[in-house]
Amino acid sequence: MFDLSLRPLKDTVLSPLPPLLPQSLTPNSLTLLAFLSGLLSCLSATCRSPFSLPFWLLNRLLDCLDGAVARHRHSTSELGGFLDLLGDFVVYALVPISVAWGNGNGDEKENVRQWIAIACLEATFWINNFVLFYIAAVAEKWRTNTFLQNRNGDGGGDGSKSGSQELTSVMMKPALIEGFESGLFFTLMLAFPSYLRALSWVMCVGVTIGTAQRVSWFVGALARNEREKRTG
């Protein structure tokens, strides 16, 4: 929800750091360090270690810094983006499970309720990610088709006639739960593990609403595209 509005602030805060880092510290190495610190945070959470939160905050800092360094050095790459997302998805999936593991106690009923909340939360992650990546795949297909039409003289020179522009904005459309909000929920889980079940249900509802928003926008974009193809 706040990712786009917070992006300029994040870039401003991080801008002094990339010039200070040695060239040997590449964006991909920062991504690896972020991933390792995320895993250490999860491992610490399973052991109820107080280091889980510091390792998580280090993960968040490094995760922001790898992209800032790549942009500063003009070395952004598809591989870097892939590794960054892969690390995020693995750590995001493990944080709630790790906190639940470390938060278990002798109350069997309470443990079952906690794991049900975690299972539902993880399920919303899977569904939301499917929606995001399906939209991305269709958006790329539409962009490619528009490019070929423009080269063959079958479409407008700026590609504005196609639905690809609309779908691109849909793909980037803010939803209720995005990166900032996810990071905030995971921080609260690690800082206050006793509230894990309540936080999981709240986040589960938020992710569900965000997914519904994206599905609604996507269905509308598909309908507009179909109308354009019939009338175009």
Automatic annotation (TrEMBL):
<keyword id="KW-0808">Transferase</keyword>
<feature type="transmembrane region" description="Helical">
    <location>
        <begin position="79"/>
        <end position="102"/>
    </location>
</feature>
<dbReference type="GO" id="GO:0008654">
    <property type="term" value="P:phospholipid biosynthetic process"/>
</dbReference>
<dbReference type="InterPro" id="IPR000462">
    <property type="entry name" value="CDP-OH_P_trans"/>
</dbReference>
<keyword id="KW-0812">Transmembrane</keyword>
<dbReference type="Pfam" id="PF01066">
    <property type="entry name" value="CDP-OH_P_transf"/>
</dbReference>
<dbReference type="GO" id="GO:0016780">
    <property type="term" value="F:phosphotransferase activity, for other substituted phosphate groups"/>
</dbReference>
<dbReference type="InterPro" id="IPR043130">
    <property type="entry name" value="CDP-OH_PTrfase_TM_dom"/>
</dbReference>
<protein>
    <recommendedName>
        <fullName>CDP-alcohol phosphatidyltransferase-domain-containing protein</fullName>
    </recommendedName>
</protein>
<feature type="transmembrane region" description="Helical">
    <location>
        <begin position="198"/>
        <end position="223"/>
    </location>
</feature>
<feature type="transmembrane region" description="Helical">
    <location>
        <begin position="114"/>
        <end position="139"/>
    </location>
</feature>
<keyword id="KW-1133">Transmembrane helix</keyword>
<dbReference type="InterPro" id="IPR048254">
    <property type="entry name" value="CDP_ALCOHOL_P_TRANSF_CS"/>
</dbReference>
<dbReference type="GO" id="GO:0016020">
    <property type="term" value="C:membrane"/>
</dbReference>
<comment type="similarity">
    <text>Belongs to the CDP-alcohol phosphatidyltransferase class-I family.</text>
</comment>
<keyword id="KW-0472">Membrane</keyword>
